[in-house]
Amino acid sequence: MSIQFKNTRYLPDGSQGRIETVSEWQVWSCKNKNWSEAPPVVSRNILLAGLHPKLEFCIGEIEKTETNPPSLDPFKPKGYEAAFFLDMASGSRNHGRFTFTNKQTVGKKYYGEAAKDQWKRIIYGSILHTGCKKMVYQQMKFIVVDDEAKDDDGNFLDDQVNNIHWESGDSHAKASKRLMQLLGLPADEETGYVDEGRPLQFRAALWGEWIGKGTVAYNPKLDDFGADLVIPLSSLKGNKPALGNHEGKILMGLVFEAEERRAKPGWMLFQWFDFETLQKDKIISRLEEKCDRLSKAYNSITDLAEILRIDQSEAEAELEEGSDKLQSEAEYENTMIRIIQADKQGILLLHPYVVRRVKERMQAVWLNLAKAAGVRFYSLMAQPDELLAHYHVVLPDGRIKGRKVFCAPDFEEGEYIVFCNPMRHWGDCQLWENLHEGTYINSTGIMAAPRKLLLNLGRDTDGDFIQLIKSSAYPNIRTAIANFDEPPATKKFPKMALQGNLQQIAINSMNDMTGIVASLLARARSGGCEQVVLKIPAGGEQKQDEEMRIIDFLSQQVQIAVDSLKSAYPNNTNGLDAVKAFLNEQGAESPWLKDFKDPACYRDRPCAVKPDALDTVSRIVQTVNSKWKAPDLRLDSSPRTYEKVLFNDVVYVPEQLAIAISHRDTYRTAMRKAIEWKEANEDSTRLIREVAEATKASKQNILETPKADGTFYEAMSWVSAYWAAAHQAETGDAGLVFMIFADEIVEKLKNSKPEEAKVITCYAVQHGSWSAPQKTPWKGQEVMVRAYIREVSSKQYLALEMKWEGAKTQIGWFHLGNIGEKYRPYLLPGVTKLMKIYSTRFKDSKTTEVTLFDPSMTEEEIKDYLFFK
């Protein structure tokens, strides 16, 4: 349960610097009252480790269905003098994981000492666990402001102490130039220049006093004022300092920078449009083209790899579906994709690691086509700008009358389709106008809009993203949006504190209804029932039965469910049950919604869908199903074949190999248990991800393993040792070395040229077209050979086809025979070579094996080889 802590001082007095941490915390099974066999939780650059590196933390785990608060009581493991106490939520409270601290808790320091404030330790505890790209600290003057405050004339005035409006917003802070440049990442690696005009998402804390989160942008007025940070009360999620001027050493973490990203619209958007509308905008015809290309390449590793190269270039830095979270590195920076992008020579194209993951990736590609019809929107981080509010009027019910104007400087001016996930109703897809004016005209990677316009779309400015695309790209969808009916009115209720002691609050916080409500909404829409008026029974904060449209009820319940992560305002479960019962009676089903999560979907079979369904999403799924073919790559290959392909020129010692082999065996055991756990827990990949993360995090410890004399090995010698250890296994796909040393492998591939096979043995020649009679065997004729993949009896082989200029009747390319596995790394599909051919084995007076030699080899070298063969 270690915390690796590194403090790099930028100034000698310690007033400015950078902190780097790697935390590795064991998991305690609260049910079994022992240390779990689950891999430790590895976190990088989190505020909690940066603020308290000397404390000992662990993760306490309970079942997601646990209802007994004492299950989270303190525990004292064997060998410990003091107990571990429940402190706050971890980054995985929805999965039943909470952070425990040995001897003493620290949550109260940041979230408040009073009993009424303890719920914040659970609801906002994840802020201290967010992984950051970098963490920096600065002794600074900072100003606490109220972003909702106005002057006597009704104009915004967030800083009434200094009588200045800093243009802060909902969880949106402002910073000086020096702080933005300290916190941001270099736009130019060579010069180290940081663009202070690029807004950031941040985490911040003043040791032992407060924590905050949100977005931050540059305000030049702070440079003249002599302060570095303006932070609004809405960013402060625990203790709230007094309004006005303060000074202290603040630790800040960069979560990510504003930049243009991509997002898949998904079924939540398309369900509100007719299938015919999508056809008119050519979405369906393009979808069919993409499916056809995939289907034709189903049994070609080379074609599939090329498709994946293109797909990944479009998908990088994509948003996680249905949320504002960036996909984790493991998802959008797939190691296999990096390898095939770098491996222009195809050295590892037939490697078992690549082949297996191509199959897995193809399943995801088919799934994305079914979910999003192959469409991608742009995605930008929302920022507040009241200078654009004069274009419209906000009605008392929150609706907007007038022009909906935003500023996205990276995009040309004009009309855009905008939407966000999760969608409450069709009104969360709107037409807005991009004008290059306002506060953020010189910024990048953002879209700025007035606060209430963003709220009308269900967005705020603490890091939310909005998806957009030029309306001219889909003119028929644009027309449909313009003609939408008035959307349901939804309320965003004030936050409600969770009740009970800390354990009870933690138990209650695991209940997230968003998926359940969204699925009911999808079923209602697919069954054409959303406009039906039902009697909704009392429940939650609804005190009496009410008649209302299903869409009105479910839209509000989606909003409540989304807010439930930060509030105790309850969903009306009685009403949800009533809607579910009605939909069951009507036969309104969306089987694809559940099946999208089934591991067999588009791996072993097409997606479940009602064959007679007429709703748009079902018809998209039907279209994809009609084209689907499972990847059929039956290339049997052993890791041993590739042991000498890379890093063979880098020396390692036996001690390094022994360490690598031991690590390999430990890793394989842990991964096997994680896979078994996945199969027993509704295909949850959580443990697999944790094993992978812990394995990746082991790299630094490996490189810092000393020799007997205290000195260190060369870094590349470890790469070579792990490559050898991973490829000496009889089974598996050598995944360990790819997981730890992916960067080194990719770099090696970029600068490698495959060794040419000077000699190739080709067998089963008697089944081909070039089997010479034993009386007139091949004796050194020069022929052209070309490698390709051949299928025989449901199995694939690397084979050669041959063309001989001296042929009289067989003009062109014809099958010669199969190639032994050891030649695969050196002779790749599509490679053509001029070689000399010799018959070397016979049966029944026909050639059964030929040996091919590179023309550069001398006659003496060839004779020596054939003599000793």
Overview of the structural elements:
The two termini are 58 Å apart. Helices cover 30% and strands 23% of the residues. It is α+β, with helices and mostly antiparallel strands and 869 residues long. The relative contact order is 0.08. A hairpin with a 2-residue loop joins strand 30 (832-843) and strand 31 (846-853). Strands 15, 16, 19, 20, 21, 22 and 23 form a seven-stranded mixed sheet that branches. It has a six-stranded mixed beta barrel with strand order 9-13-10-12-11-14. A six-stranded antiparallel barrel has the order 26-29-28-27-30-31. It has six domains: 2-13 and 20-129, no CATH class; 134-257, Barwin-like endoglucanases (Beta Barrel), CATH 2.40.40; 377-482, Beta Barrel (Barwin-like endoglucanases); 502-589, no CATH class; 639-750, no CATH class; 759-868, no CATH class. The longest helix is centred in the last third of the chain and has 27 residues, at 654-680.
How would you sum up the major sheet? 7 strands, mixed
Strand content: 15-25%
Shape: globular
Q: Which whole number gives the mean pLDDT?
A: 87
From the N-terminal CA to the C-terminal CA, the straight-line distance is 58 Å
Which blocks of ≥5 consecutive residues have pLDDT under 50? Answer: 312-333
Number of helices: 27
Gyration radius over CA: 31 Å
Number of strands: 31
Oligomer: single chain
Reading off the top of the CATH hierarchy, the class of the largest domain is best stated as: Mainly Beta
Query: How many domains, as an integer?
Result: 6
Helix content: 25-40%
The CATH topology label of the largest domain is: Barwin-like endoglucanases
Q: What is the correct CATH architecture of the largest domain?
A: Beta Barrel
The class by helix and strand makeup works out as alpha+beta
